[in-house]
């Protein structure tokens, strides 16, 4: 991706890819867990209990209910009379489901339709799922389509007594889906029960485990949680190993020509000395860091595209100058990158700014993506400045760039600006993404701890 | 329709501007600063973003708000460059992660002196880099009868002789007021080589007169323009800086 520059044929592209080191973010190898079972058998309660127990942002639930087909007027009238068969596999848009699951499995962002039970139709908006490491697909037909089964790592079938199911369904549909009891019972005997026997129940044959009594079943819960924890550990190990592999060559090879280290002028070194000095008071630290950050952002803008522009001066003369080719936005890698924001705002006061929270796991040191908000039109911006205070191993920078790529930003439009970086981190980053440019305030030793944000935010 | 009287048909240099890793064809062309042969004169690197900032403030259609914002950004870069000419000494500190850092510490006291009124527009940029810096002022105006610059007013720090002086005036046209201001500073005991004259746009004539007269005074500018017109305005220039900053 991103390396194709139109004029050169495919051969050049292939070469570039061959030379390029590969980085797979932990979400590029999604594990999918399917939970099927009769309506009211406790599928969603079980899924929620699992997610609550793990309490990690990268374990998410996807309900098959989101993939109900939109109804045509005739079917819609039927639905309002409770005569439409929602409990048949026919009602589910498996093609879209498979498509979205494949995207997620490939680490891409997927737009999930929003289905309204009140209106019996898809709403205009959709919700996005991005970067989960584990996805729990929950629904009566979660284990129905063979294409979906192929994508799954674990298949669970929930079991419960029919009367338990019916009573749960009545409570849920009245409370959450605006139905009346009479309609629910009509639906139950017309569709739910016969369909259960015909389509739902046979899914138990493909299940890896069958869970009776839902959440009350502690042993089954623990088994599933343990399985997911194991999967997460494997992914983390792979991810860290991949990061380590990228270290090869860091010491011998020169830095990429797209890495620009700011000229170490006497002012810059003097400012750096004040910033590095543990005895500098906070007021001075913040002042000098902001001053440095301003120069860093000015420098970063040199890597954004400009076009020639002829203007007339008040003297009536023509001057052949330049202007920015288009919108330049920024993405702050939290928390450290926020220390560069004052500098950014001095240079581009109204800069659209996205935010990404990437934290290194305290135990393993693995970077983890916790939070993400980007400008909607970010893929159209001429340049995106990615700001982080420090880059030590390059792990979070790799992840942040991957996030931008996954959101349609072309690599040659990304300019990473950081106060300090080690050669190892720079090497890893530019080996995987040779098309991005990097502006570094000063080169430091590898693996330096993140101390700037602690000093800047004073905690 | 370029400038009316450009000095002896000299052409303004036009070149591709952009980072080294881009090929010539990927870089847009623009007119860049004329080079000068005096080693006391520092011209800011002609980066695409500096040229774009200058293009904004040169444009007759740029409104006052933008003019102020973009000129402030250039002024900050000028001040940062100017400060590089001040003395430093080696200074090693301990960093928050406990290792030593071999750095530099700033030496000597500084002050700003602005030539009223346009020079005062540069005080903000100076304060952005040097928080509580002392700032003196000099008022020099052209005498209507003799057409020569005349000193009307000055208020300078008492210990100015012990300080490095950053002299501020955005437009360096004939250099008449700058020369007079430097003479005032020297008369107050400031050594010539402790004066830094910081300006946005200079004319080759102004720089030449000045550098020959004061071979030790450093000049920091963002751009040396083509020349002066018959009214001694810099061309292509950017008009009257004071008017565009304060009143237009």
Automatic annotation (TrEMBL), chain A:
Q: What is its EC number?
A: 2.7.1.48
Any signal peptide, and if so, which residues?
A: none
- Which keywords has UniProt assigned to this entry? ATP-binding, Kinase, Nucleotide-binding, Transferase
Q: Where in this chain does the record put each AAA+ ATPase domain?
A: 29-176
Q: Which CDD domains match?
A: PRTases_typeI, UMPK
Pathway of action = Pyrimidine metabolism; CTP biosynthesis via salvage pathway; CTP from cytidine: step 1/3; Pyrimidine metabolism; UMP biosynthesis via salvage pathway; UMP from uridine: step 1/1
Write down the chemical reaction(s) this protein catalyses. cytidine + ATP = CMP + ADP + H(+); uridine + ATP = UMP + ADP + H(+)
Kindly give the InterPro entries that the UniProt entry links to this protein. AAA+_ATPase, P-loop_NTPase, PRK/URK, PRTase-like, PRTase_dom, Uridine_kinase-like
| Entry-linked Pfam families | PRK, UPRTase
Per UniProt, the enzyme's principal EC class comes to: transferase
GO BP terms, alphabetized: pyrimidine-containing compound salvage
SMART domains according to UniProt: AAA
Q: Which GO terms describe its molecular function?
A: ATP binding; uridine kinase activity
Family the entry assigns: Belongs to the uridine kinase family.
In Swiss-Prot or TrEMBL terms, this protein is called Uridine kinase
Lineage here is: Eukaryota, Fungi, Dikarya, Ascomycota, Pezizomycotina
TrEMBL record, chain B:
What cofactors are annotated for this protein? Mg(2+)
Q: Does the keyword Glycosyltransferase apply?
A: yes
Where, by residue number, does the polypeptide cross the bilayer? none
Q: Name one GO biological process term.
A: pyrimidine-containing compound salvage
* Keywords of this entry: Allosteric enzyme, Glycosyltransferase, GTP-binding, Nucleotide-binding, Transferase
Hey, which pathway is this one from? Pyrimidine metabolism; UMP biosynthesis via salvage pathway; UMP from uracil: step 1/1
Domain Phosphoribosyltransferase stretches: 45-246
Spell out the Pfam families in the cross-references.
UPRTase (PF14681)
Against SUPFAM superfamilies, the record matches this protein to: PRTase-like
Q: What is its EC number?
A: 2.4.2.9
Q: Does the keyword Zinc apply?
A: no
UniProt GO molecular function:
GTP binding; uracil phosphoribosyltransferase activity
Q: Which domain of life is it from?
A: Eukaryota
Q: Which family does it belong to?
A: Belongs to the UPRTase family.
NCBIfam families documented for this protein: PRK00129.1 (NF001097)
Protein name from the UniProt record? uracil phosphoribosyltransferase
From which organism does this entry originate? Bombardia bombarda
């Amino acid at each position: 991706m991103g390396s194709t520059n139109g004029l050169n044929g495919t051969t050049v592209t292939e070469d570039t890819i061959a030379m390029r080191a590969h980085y797979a973010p932990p979400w590029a190898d999604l594990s999918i867990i399917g939970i099927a079972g009769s309506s009211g058998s406790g599928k969603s309660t079980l899924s929620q209990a699992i997610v609550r127990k793990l309490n990690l942002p990268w374990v998410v639930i996807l309900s098959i209910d989101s993939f109900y087909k939109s109804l045509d007027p005739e079917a819609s009238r039927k639905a309002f009379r409770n005569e439409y068969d929602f409990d048949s596999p026919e009602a589910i848009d498996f093609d879209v489901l498979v498509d979205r699951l494949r995207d997620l499995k490939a680490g891409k962002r997927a737009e999930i339709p929003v289905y309204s039970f009140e209106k019996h139709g898809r709403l205009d908006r959709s919700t996005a799922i991005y970067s989960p490491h584990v996805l729990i697909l929950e629904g009566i037909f979660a284990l129905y389509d063979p294409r979906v089964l192929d994508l799954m790592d674990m298949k669970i079938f929930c079991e419960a007594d029919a009367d338990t199911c019916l009573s749960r369904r009545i409570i849920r549909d009245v409370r959450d889906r605006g139905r009346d009891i009479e309609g629910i019972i009509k639906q139950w005997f017309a569709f739910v029960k016969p369909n259960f026997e015909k389509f739902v129940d046979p899914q138990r044959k493909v299940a890896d485990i069958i869970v009776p009594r839902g959440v009350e079943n502690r042993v089954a819960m623990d088994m599933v949680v343990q399985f997911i924890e194991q999967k997460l550990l494997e992914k983390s190990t792979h991810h860290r190993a991949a990061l380590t592999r990228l270290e090869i060559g860091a010491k011998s090879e020169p830095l990429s020509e797209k890495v620009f280290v700011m000229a170490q002028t006497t002012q810059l070194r003097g400012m750096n000395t004040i910033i590095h000095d543990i005895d500098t008071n906070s007021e001075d630290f913040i002042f000098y860091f902001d001053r440095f950050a301003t120069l860093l952002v000015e420098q970063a803008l040199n890597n954004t595209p400009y076009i020639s522009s002829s203007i007339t001066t008040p003297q009536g003369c023509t001057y052949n100058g330049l202007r920015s080719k288009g919108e330049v936005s920024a993405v702050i890698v939290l928390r450290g990158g926020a220390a560069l924001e004052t500098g950014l705002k001095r240079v581009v006061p109204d800069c659209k700014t996205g935010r990404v929270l990437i934290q290194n796991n305290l135990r393993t040191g693995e970077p983890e993506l916790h939070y993400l908000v980007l400008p909607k039109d970010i893929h159209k911006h001429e340049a995106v400045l990615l700001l982080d205070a420090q880059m030590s191993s390059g792990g979070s920078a790799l992840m942040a760039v991957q996030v931008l790529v996954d959101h349609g930003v072309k690599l040659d439009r990304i300019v990473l600006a950081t106060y300090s970086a080690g050669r190892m981190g720079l090497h890893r980053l530019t080996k995987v993404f040779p098309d991005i440019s990097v502006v570094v305030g000063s080169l430091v030793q590898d693996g330096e701890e993140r101390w700037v944000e602690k000093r800047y935010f004073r905690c | 329709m370029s400038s009316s009287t450009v000095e002896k048909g000299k052409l303004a240099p036009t070149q591709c501007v952009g980072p080294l890793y881009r090929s010539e064809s990927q870089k847009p062309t623009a007119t860049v600063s004329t080079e000068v042969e005096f080693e006391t004169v520092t011209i800011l690197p002609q980066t695409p973003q500096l040229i774009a900032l200058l293009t904004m403030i040169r444009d007759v259609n740029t409104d006052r708000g933008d003019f102020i914002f973009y000129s402030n950004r250039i002024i900050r870069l000028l001040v940062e460059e100017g400060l590089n000419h001040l003395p430093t000494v080696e200074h090693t500190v301990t960093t928050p992660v406990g290792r030593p850092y071999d750095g530099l510490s700033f030496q000597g006291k500084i002050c700003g002196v602005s030539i009223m009124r346009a020079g005062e527009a540069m005080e903000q940029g100076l304060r952005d880099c040097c928080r509580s810096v002392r700032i003196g002022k000099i008022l020099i105006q052209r005498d209507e009868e003799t057409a020569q610059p005349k000193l009307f007013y000055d208020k300078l720090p008492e210990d100015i002789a012990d300080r490095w002086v950053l002299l501020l005036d955005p437009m360096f046209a004939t250099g008449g007021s700058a020369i007079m201001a430097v003479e005032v500073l020297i008369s107050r005991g400031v050594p010539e080589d402790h004066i830094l004259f910081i300006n946005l746009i200079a004319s080759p004539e102004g720089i030449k007169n000045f550098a020959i007269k004061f071979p030790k005074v450093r000049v920091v500018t963002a751009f040396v323009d083509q020349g002066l017109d018959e009214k001694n305005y810099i061309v292509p220039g950017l008009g009257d800086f004071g008017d565009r900053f304060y009143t237009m």
